[in-house]
Amino acid sequence: MRFVGFLCVLAVLIAAVAYLTKPGEADAEAALREQLMTAVAREELGAGRSAGENLALAACKLRPNDCYDLVRSGIETGFTDHVLYVRFTMSGFERAATCYGAFLRFYCPGGLKTP
């Protein structure tokens, strides 16, 4: 019987920590920005792209903040607060992702997918 009580107390503690550490909408935007900046930084010029694509990538590498603002305008996002976690959805440029936030982190199972 003590073991069941211990499990109940542990479950309540985990739920309380999850509630207190769930990320907010600003955290979701920051995670999106970080992922986009990382993706741009990893891309290499050339790599079988057209001249226009290489020019856009070079511009993004030179002015990442302006590039983010431009790309962000083409991405639709949704933020849903569930009591113990949040769901952040994004779609744009023929890609979509659903991420879940809990314990100060976002997890995106499957990453960006073609809808």
Summary keywords:
115 residues; elongated; alpha+beta; single chain; 4 helices; four-stranded antiparallel sheet
Can you characterise this structure?
This protein is of the alpha+beta class and 115 residues long. The chain has one domain. 50% of the residues lie in helices and 21% in strands. It is built from 4 helices and 4 strands, in the order ααααββββ. It has a 4-stranded antiparallel beta sheet, with helices on one face. Strand 3 and strand 4 form a beta hairpin. 10% of the residues are buried.
β-strand percent reads 15-25%
SSE-based structural type: alpha+beta
Spell the H/E element sequence.
HHHHEEEE
Mean pLDDT: 86
The figure for the number of domains is 1
**Helical fraction:** 40-55%
**Could you give the count of β-strands?**
4
Q: Which overall shape is indicated by the principal axes computed on the Cα atoms?
A: elongated
Low-confidence stretches: none
N- to C-terminal distance:
49 Å
Using the CA coordinates, give the radius of gyration.
19 Å
Tally of helical segments: 4
Strand arrangement, largest sheet?
Answer: 1-2-3-4
| Biggest pleated sheet | 4 strands, antiparallel
